[in-house]
């Protein structure tokens, strides 16, 4: 019985960083619940705790206002909370710091779609294509599956 618990714990510890990586930011979080607000926010994203994640990412951008990844993940959490306008602000801050940051371009495009702004989403798609980012295809699928305005 104890071996089974240990095995399950090890499998979970190995899978959590992979799930965070899939959340759109290429920097995997620390595998523990302590650490920076950014790392703790990433763990909250993995658990689907959007309110707590947004709170932690707000702390992260306050602690390091030049960390574009933290603004991107703040936008991600806000978008998941159904706040696409606030998410756009966070994505725009990330892109002001790093204009070629593909994850923020993709997510901003999805937020534009949530606000029924297909034209702006297409502009973000074109920017991703110009960068040669594989995320362009992901955004294109979102655009193609979105209801027409």
What is the H/E string?
A: HHHHHHHH
Percent helix, as a range, is over 70%
Report the CATH C-level class: Mainly Alpha
How many H/I helices? 8
Concise summary:
The protein is mostly helical and 149 residues long. It has helices at 2-21, 37-46, 50-63, 68-80, 84-97, 102-114, 118-131, 135-145.
Describe the 3D structure:
With 149 residues, this protein is mostly helical. The chain has a single domain (2-145), classed as Serine Threonine Protein Phosphatase 5, Tetratricopeptide repeat (Alpha Horseshoe). The chain has helices at 2-21, 37-46, 50-63, 68-80, 84-97, 102-114, 118-131, 135-145. Helix 3 packs antiparallel against helix 4 (68-80), helix 4 (68-80) packs parallel to helix 6 (102-114) and helix 7 (118-131) runs antiparallel to helix 8. The mean pLDDT is 87.
Task: Compile the SSE list and pairings.
Blueprint: H1 2-21, H2 37-46, H3 50-63, H4 68-80, H5 84-97, H6 102-114, H7 118-131, H8 135-145
Task: From the structure above, extract its key features.
single chain; 149 residues; Serine Threonine Protein Phosphatase 5, Tetratricopeptide repeat; 8 helices; mainly alpha; 73% helix
